[in-house]
Amino acid sequence: MVCPKCFDEVDVIYCSMLVERQHWVGLVVDLKNWEVLVLDCKREVLKDEQVEKYIEDITIMLPYLIRKHGVNMRMLTQRLDPMTMSRPNIQCSCSSLGMFVFHF
C-alpha cells in the first residue's frame, strides 16, 4: 500500500467526529491553511464551547502526528504550532438524491 503524501498529493482531509456521544460533525483539515473547519448543520444542538473543547485537542495533536508519520520531507519538517479552528455558520439541505448540500 502506498500512502499519499500530504502537502504534495493531499491538501485537505475530511472525516467525521462524534461530539459528546450525541452529535456528528464533519471535520475538514486544511493542510495548506493549517486549520480545522467544523461543519455542523445543526449548530443549535451544541454550544461553540462544547465543540471547541473536543476540537482543541485535535488541533494540538495533529501537527505532531503529521510530523511523526510523515512520508515525505515536507511533512517531517512541518511546523508544530496548533492548527486554528473555526465553526462557520452554514445552512444544510438535502437534495433529491439524498446528498447533503452545504450553503456557506
Protein described:
- With 104 residues, this protein is of the alpha+beta class.
- The chain is elongated.
- The chain is 24% helix and 31% strand.
- The model has no long low-confidence stretch (mean pLDDT 80).
Ordered list of secondary-structure elements with their pairings:
Layout: E1 12-19, E2 23-30, E3 35-39, H1 48-68, H2 73-76, E4 84-86, E5 91-94, E6 100-103
The main β sheet shows up as: 4 strands, mixed
Shape assignment: elongated
Give the terminus-to-terminus CA distance. 36 Å
CATH topology: TATA-Binding Protein
The number of helical elements comes to 2
State the CATH architecture.
Answer: 2-Layer Sandwich
Structural descriptors:
single chain; 104 residues; alpha+beta; TATA-Binding Protein; four-stranded mixed beta sheet
Short description:
This protein has 104 residues and is of the alpha+beta class.
